[in-house]
Amino acid sequence: MARGHRSQIKRERNANRDTRPSAKLSYARVSVQKACFVLDAIRGKNVNEALGILTYNPRYASSLVKKLLESAIANAENNNQMNRDNLYIAECFAGQGPIMKRVRPRAQGRAYRIEKRMSNITIVLDEK
């Protein structure tokens, strides 16, 4: 049952931690499917190229992902002292968040449920 002292367990857990710069947006009011269309377009690209793609992408999710990418770039420059020109998008993914359930009135006293979906979007950068 006992695996060691609490501090030893924490040391082991923190040793396996990912040190790549990242940014996460929780509870974004866009569905996972719609966010993934934008994320697929920038996955593996250079950050400057990805910002250009996001600037001229007409989808709503692209504005959210652009702000998130700029935050990840700032984290890389300030926290990890990385050069902006060498950064690329190593990972980007969206996971399902909570769902807001709403009711829409229909004919003959019935009610249909509307599900307003949210997502958690994560971007991880790395240096070439």
TrEMBL record:
Q: Tell me which UniProt keywords the record has, alphabetically.
A: Ribonucleoprotein, Ribosomal protein, RNA-binding, rRNA-binding
Entry coiled-coil feature ranges: none
Return the InterPro entries for the record. Answer: Ribosomal_uL22, Ribosomal_uL22_bac/chlpt-type, Ribosomal_uL22_bac/org-type, Ribosomal_uL22_CS, Ribosomal_uL22_sf
Q: Which GO terms describe its cellular component?
A: cytosolic large ribosomal subunit
User: Is DNA-binding among this UniProt entry's keywords?
Assistant: no
CDD domains, alphabetized: Ribosomal_L22 (cd00336)
Q: Kindly list the GO molecular function terms attached to this UniProt entry.
A: rRNA binding; structural constituent of ribosome
Q: Which PROSITE patterns match?
A: RIBOSOMAL_L22 (PS00464)
- Which residues fall in a compositionally biased region of kind Basic and acidic residues? 9-21
Q: Which GO terms describe its biological process?
A: translation
SUPFAM superfamilies (UniProt xref): Ribosomal protein L22 (SSF54843)
Specify where the region named Disordered lies, as residue ranges.
1-21
Role, per record: This protein binds specifically to 23S rRNA; its binding is stimulated by other ribosomal proteins, e.g., L4, L17, and L20. It is important during the early stages of 50S assembly. It makes multiple contacts with different domains of the 23S rRNA in the assembled 50S subunit and ribosome.
Protein family per UniProt: Belongs to the universal ribosomal protein uL22 family.
Q: How does this polypeptide assemble, per the annotation?
A: Part of the 50S ribosomal subunit.
Please state what the protein is called. Large ribosomal subunit protein uL22
Which organism does this sequence originate in? [Clostridium] aminophilum
**Which lineage do the record's taxonomy fields give for this organism?**
Bacteria, Bacillati, Bacillota, Clostridia, Lachnospirales
